[in-house]
Amino acid sequence: MTGDHYFTAEPTTAARGREVEFTAAGRDFTLASASGVFSADRLDPGTAVLLRKAELPTADTTGDLLDLGCGFGPITCVLASTAPSATVWAVDVNERARELTAANAERVGAADRVRVRTPDDVPADVRFAQIWSNPPIRIGKDELHDLLRRWLPRLAPDGVAWLVVARHLGGDSLHRWLVDEQGWQVRRQASQKGYRVLHVSR
Asked: What is the value of pTM for the model shown?
């Protein structure tokens, strides 16, 4: 494997800046992006399906929410905007992605409620009311399973995770693995444009 990938910790490609515009939860967003991060030029189609079909938090939502693999921060910014009483943890291995997410949280007026961290810098005692992720399928199946085994157990007892996975990249097999081998309760919330939106709970 050569060159930078969105899961590269410190991208070496030049950070060519751009802006990404999209609408979610009835609000227009214009966020900063740059080369070297996931879906740098547009809102990823899977992320768009997730934000459209999952049950977004509301003004009554409190506690800690996790955006796992935040990229430049579109999910983080939507969660922070729809749940102003919650704390959003934005986690990514990619340094450039974290910098962009922090800047975008400031753009949407949520910098005080967004915690941008590397995976190892999230305190071990934090439990999440919700986990949101368009997980990095291309890191490989074993690595993806390790990622989910690490983070899903950190759901609060009544917490829920929302995942989006392309069907052709193993969305259905991941569903089966979560249920049959990991013991999670999984419901397919929606299927759209080749993506599966999965509702995961204990």
From this structure: 0.93
